Amino acid sequence: MEPIPDDPALRPDGAGADDPVPLYLRRTYSWAYLDRRTLGWLDRPSVVSAILWGNAHRLMQAAVAAFRPGSRVLQAACVYGGFSAMLARRVGSEGRLEVVDVAPLQVANARRKLAGLPQASVRRADLAGGCPGWRAYDGVCCFFLLHEVPATTRSRIVGHLLDAVAPGGRVVFVDYHRPHARHPLRWPMAAVFRWLEPYAESLLDTDIATLSAQSAAFSWQKRTLFGGLYQIVIGDRRDTEAAA
Ligand SMILES: C[S@@+](CC[C@H](N)C(=O)[O-])C[C@H]1O[C@@H](n2cnc3c(N)ncnc32)[C@H](O)[C@@H]1O
Questions:
Q1: Do residues 84 and 99 touch, judged by C-beta distance below 8 A?
Q2: Which of 112, 110, 89, 113 lies closest to 99, judged by CA?
Q3: Which atom of ligand 1 is closest in space to residue 52's alpha carbon?
Q4: Which residue has the higher pLDDT, 83 or 18?
Q5: Does the pLDDT value for residue 237 go beyond 60?
């Protein structure tokens, strides 16, 4: 596989790109998403699986299965491992997958991973900055992004993602959730969140479906997995929106 070129635009501050990488990302997640020295180590299915306590494959499968072959899907932010390729294969050659991420290094890495899948493309944009395509997508998939952004940014991103869903289309959020009181990982995960993921705590008890005024146009279903540590939230935009 082609290595990522050594391009000045891939610097950790995102300088060289049109708008800078957000401050919260630079301050909190430089080591994870903006540093090419850790990227090769983190971007492995085995590491992603370990981080999600062996649940990565079933969470990814559940998200991917929510979208129909032949549909146009927006993936909100890059994900380590093979998730985007799974999604691209799911929509197939008759569909489209567009991945949007704010970090130039992640965009370059995702392009490299999706090189053999012509139905997939990757572009750089801040999902908090505006709607990536007004009612343009049959599906929008947001996999473990919301716990990594501050609460106000989270609401903006959810609003923009809902705006991007076409009438009759679907949005899928997969993320952390408050585990059951006696879950053996409750306190270890609380420590991990305090140490590495400072915005996660504010998501755990939040009903994602309430984060945007747009939510009323959707019907929602939510399920939790692995003792409540993970949630899958699906919103279906009502067809009647077509008349609006
Ligand atoms: C999807 S999340 C977490 C994924 C998961 N931890 C994994 O295994 O990869 C990580 C991505 O979100 C991106 N990101 C964070 N804030 C963003 C924003 N406002 N707009 C677009 N992408 C964003 C980061 O650049 C990073 O590539």
A1: yes
A2: 110
A3: 8
A4: 83
A5: yes
CA dist., res. 174 & res. 164, Å (int): 17
219: domain CATH number?
3.40.50.150
**Cα 163 to ligand 1 centroid, rounded to whole Å:** 19
Does any ligand 1 atom lie closer than 6 A to the CB of residue 63? no
pTM exceeding the 0.90 threshold for the entire prediction: yes
Around Cβ 65, how many Cβ atoms within 10 Å?
Answer: 11
Q: For residue 217, which phi and psi values (nearest 5 degrees)?
A: -80, 0
| Overall average pLDDT of the 32-51 stretch | 96
What are the φ/ψ torsions at residue 87 (nearest 5 degrees)?
A: -65, -40
DSSP class of 9: G
Residue in the structure block whose two tokens are 């935009």: 237
Name the residue with the closest Cα to ligand 1, atom 22: 101
Range of the domain at 153: 8-243
Query: Is 94 part of a structural domain of the chain?
Result: yes
Q: Please state the domain count of the chain.
A: 1
Residue 243 pLDDT grade (very low, low, confident, very high; cuts 50, 70, 90):
very low
Ligand 1 pocket mutation, candidates 38, 87, 148, criterion most atoms within 8 A of CB: 148
